[in-house]
Write the structure tokens for this entry.
Amino acid sequence: MILGVPKEIKNNENRVAMTPAGVMELVKFGHTVYIQKDAGFNSGFADAEFTAAGATILETIEEVYEKAEMIVKVKEPIASEYGLIKKDQLVFTYFHFASSEPLTHAMIKSGAVCLAYETVEKVDRSLPLLIPMSEVAGRMAIQEGAKYLEKPQKGKGVLLGGVPGVPSGKVLILGGGIVGTQAAKMAAGLGARVVIMDISLNRLRQLSDIMPANVTTILSNEYNIKEAIKEADLVVGAVLIPGAKAPHLITRDMLKLMKPGTVVVDVAVDQGGCIETCKPTTHEDPVFVIDEVVHYCVANMPGAVPYTSTLALTNATLPYVLQLANKGWKRACTENEELKKGLNVVNGAVVYKGVADAWNLTLSELEDQFI
């Protein structure tokens, strides 16, 4: 198969979807890999490393899309890429269709096969291609939240870990999944007083067993959230419904309950956000203030630490890329139910329920796409 890796052009997206090690594995199986010039530069991988591994460097993004049967990316295509995607071309990347109606309609129109990292799902309901970036984003949520709590950044002026004789800061985490767990670990390690909420009692029991003493678990409901945000210095939104919009757990009216300078970090913003007032921002302009509450809503947080993020992501994606390249998408998805669940839009048809529901589109039978 002919694979193409374009340079990411979303604002401040510094990751790349393939490492030289991944290229070497693909070339060993007889595949051709085209990498756009400087695609890996910001992640610490030079063109010479890719060519030494067996890739061919192409100057422009147009050439990559034109030659490739399969495009491997990190982030969803942006508007300038829509017209480059061809009918029947396989595009393997994070799509997050439920947060972008224009992207959804553009991919339907393209006739491409859109296989989304974020909905590849194992039998145990875990999301193997979302986990590594969720781990990065969860840890970064505390790092960034702590920074924006500083007074020059319009925060409360609170040091999360406190100092002897001074109380430590309070962190509220909504969601006990991968993002929430990693955020709680980081916040607890800094010495903050942490509350983590989830709707699952079983998950709360698990977290209670593994977390240090400065982490408290509380059942998530509207009343408990309203009470907790009154005292929180930092609130992390870490809710995920695979492939669908995140529910709004904090509404605009609830901001009035927060103290001025409280910081909210909505990691779920790429799925619509679980804080109603959040809208996607960039690393270039990451925050805005509403009702004296500082909002950090960067949709590609791991892009700020591209070396770590690229290695973590490609460690997880490469086995799936190899299956798709070796077998073709139809056979690979037939033989591997995990990959099959990653199919969102196929040849103009929406085949993933969360996407259809988000935009009131007709859901097609997935099996029809294999004929």
Observations:
- DSSP finds 13 helices and 15 strands in the chain.
- The longest strand covers residues 193-198.
